[in-house]
Amino acid sequence: MNISLLSKKDSKASIWRGGLTYEYMIYPKTANYADRDFIFRISSATIEQAPSEFTKFKGYHRYLVMLDNNLDIEINKEKKTYEKYKIMEFNSDDEVTSYTKGIDFNWMISEKIPHHKLAITNRSQNCDAQILLLFSLQTTVITINKKRYSLEPYDLLVIENQEKENVILDFSTECLFGLLDF
Among 123, 129, 169, 172, who pairs with 179 as Cys (CB 3.0-4.6 Å)? Predict the structure, then answer.
């Protein structure tokens, strides 16, 4: 089992049409964002223009969570509103326009990967997924198999669990909790 703590302050920034995106992780590490050959990518973006169109990614499923306010959005010409921390799921090839400025969490997963889930939790978890993602919404302590990890807001803890060992997790506050099996 490999556990990595990726802090917000160490993430790489790049420009997208509506603001900045901070990449935490691309998997596998040999993948290239521009080539769109990744299995998954985790990032956080600033939406600095309203309206702004989201970048399309054919062949990817996407989870998006607003971290600082509500999101007024149009998906394929249908208007929707998502409250802060409400998980939005969509096909990354959809026409998506944001009418809100703010900061988001973004997880793109290849459509070739059938088993993935994102939730918000502060309850103990017991699981054996191949990849576990824990994204802190505020300062928190996450205990993994009795070992404690301290996270600042918007830090990411990634557990690569190729052996599919049983992992016991405890959270001091609410976190985004993602699971992925290949």
Answer: 129
Q: Which amino acid is at 32?
A: N
Count of CA atoms in the C-beta half-sphere (13 A) of 21 = 19
List strand residue ranges (DSSP E) for the chain, in order: 2-6, 12-16, 19-27, 40-47, 52-53, 60-66, 71-75, 78-82, 87-91, 96-98, 102-110, 115-121, 125-127, 131-136, 140-144, 147-151, 156-160, 167-171, 175-181
Count how many residues are written for the chain: 182
Q: How confident is the model at residue 19 (pLDDT cuts 50, 70, 90)?
A: confident
Give the rounded distance of the alpha carbon of 31 from its chain centre: 17
Separation CA 115–CA 127 (nearest Å):
14
Q: How far apart are CA 55 and CA 60, in angstroms?
A: 12
Condensed to tens digits (0 to 9), the pLDDT of residues 50-92 reads 998 888 889 999 999 999 999 999 999 999 999 999 999 999 9
